[in-house]
Amino acid sequence: EKDAQWAYSLLAVQLRRIQEIKISGNSHFDRDDILGAIGLKPGAKFDRSKILEIEDRVKEFYGRRGYLNSLVSIGFDESANQDMTLLVRIREREPCLIEKIEFNAENPNPGLNERLTRNTRRLLEKPFTEQNVATIEASLQEFLKKNRYLNTVVQQRDARYNAAKTRVTLTYDLTDTYTYEVLLSGYKAYTINEILRKLNLDEFVRGTA
């Protein structure tokens, strides 16, 4: 029995590379920041299948900065040497602003809700960005710590948008909304302030008391 004979042919295909990346329509963010989100540089291999992935990266970049309605399209031009110019076209549109911050306490505490509302009022009408949300939550944590809400836990429940996604209401759930006080008796050798400093109450981890 004779071995089967196989014939092979090799087809050489010229490797295309990204010669240039052109970005248009960005007025609120620097070109370098958007390039960082794209994750490609001139000279990188051109892969047509990655076009949608690049588009999603740019949309995510804008979404995290409050521009939920931004439009992104990706195109490309071929040069004489078959290298490609990547075209990133952006319409930033109107950002989403924080319209209201609500608090829903497990144990009704209207006074606490009002104080938290006042504490976060300065962040209303700010863009709905990851950074601003982090600032809101840090401000809440600091307020609770300062006012001795040792076991109170704050957790974002949801974000409700208007139809155009240009306004958002944030809702936070509060659990164990009880403050604590320190009762001291029988002390003579130290002052109250000295004892409180030794207790170091500010270093207590809320939720573990």
Q: Order of strands side by side in the largest beta sheet?
A: 1-3-2
Share in helix: 25-40%
Unreliable stretches covering 5 or more consecutive residues: none
Question: What is the approximate shape?
Answer: elongated
Largest sheet: 3 strands, mixed
Task: Please supply descriptive tags for the structure shown above.
three-stranded mixed sheet, 209 residues, 6 strands, elongated, alpha/beta
Description:
Helices cover 27% and strands 24% of the residues. The radius of gyration is 28 Å and the shape is elongated. The termini are far apart. It has helices spanning 31-38, 51-63, 110-120, 130-146, 192-199; strands at 18-24, 71-78, 84-91, 97-105, 153-161, 167-175. It has a three-stranded mixed beta sheet, covered by helices on one side. It has a three-stranded mixed beta sheet with strand order 4-6-5. The chain has five helices and six strands. It is an alpha/beta fold.
